[in-house]
Design goal:
single chain; about 80 residues; mainly alpha; 2 strands
Length: about 80
Amino acid sequence: MNGRGWRRTRLLLVLVVFLAWAGAGDVYARHVAQRELATRVHERVPEAKSITAKISSLPFVGRLVFQGKVGEVALPPPASRRATS
């Protein structure tokens, strides 16, 4: 490969690594927000011992920064997660 080909390959590699890093950061930030939301709900409603929060928003950070909102937030009640027999 000539010098120009190596530069393109390096640029592409840097771009792929950056996008992977940004995607992982976005997933981690959403996970932290879900955990914090579940904790706050549990603090206000102590009976909700095993509450989980689900935020459906991709990209999470981008929407939050530029729109000030996320796609959808769900707090399913514990009974709805149990299997019915």
